[in-house]
Design brief:
By secondary structure, the chain is of the alpha/beta class. The chain has five helices and nine strands; from the N terminus they run ααββββαβαβββαβ. It starts with a helix and ends in a 5-residue tail after the last strand.
Amino acid sequence: MPSGSVSGGSGNKKTGAKSSKAIQAAKKKSGGARGVPAQRQIPWLTIGGVALVVVLVAVIAVSLIPKYQNQQEMSAWTPSESNQDPSDDIEGVLKIEYPAGVHVAPGQRVAYDQSPPFGGPHDSVWATCTGTVYEQPVRTENMVHSLEHGAVWVAYNPDLLDDAAVDTLRQKVDGRTYTLMSPYPGLDAPIALQSWGHQLEVDSVDDERIDQFISALRLNQYTYPEVGASCSTIPGSFDPANPPAFDASEPGPDAVPMNAETAGDMQQAPAGS
């Protein structure tokens, strides 16, 4: 009996040791003695990277979507074979047909029928219209010749627009070929846009018709007479930094009438001039 008791005690010790090891192993697997699962580390670097990508995509979308939408909107005002004069759908556009190629001498006045004029006899030298912004009023007869070449002339009344509004207009013209801009004293509207045979007056620089007019009529081959004519400066004849001055007075009795074909020093322009 004693030997049996000893043997039984030894077996119990071995069994207890094995049980203890099993418990310790279970604790390690379960995350601790209390059975609380081990916490996983949050992948902050990955989350930050994903968030950055999302922000970049959002910024790009905010930047590009309005431009795409604007392009889509402007496509309706782009001339084509099937829509040769989109300005027909712009409310307020005045259209008058004028004969082309009738030139007057430097310094000679024209008795224009509109103010600002947008067709009729004009100086033989055009005003530079390569996205040119004139800070001072320019002789009207030179500006009208630019319209004959396909340019859009943005005129404004400096007494009716503040500096911020003028700057907004400038951004629509500056550096944009076949456009030009100048103050026009006495204009009865804040802004007037001219292309050959077309005019639109608006009250605000935020009027969407400004962009529509420019898109519809700038270099519109169906609406101006001298397709392919230049808008660049004529060296020695016109200086965009010091252009001929605007004359606000009424034309005198010696002014060339709108229906004139020849008068004094006026001459018929050669084709393509």
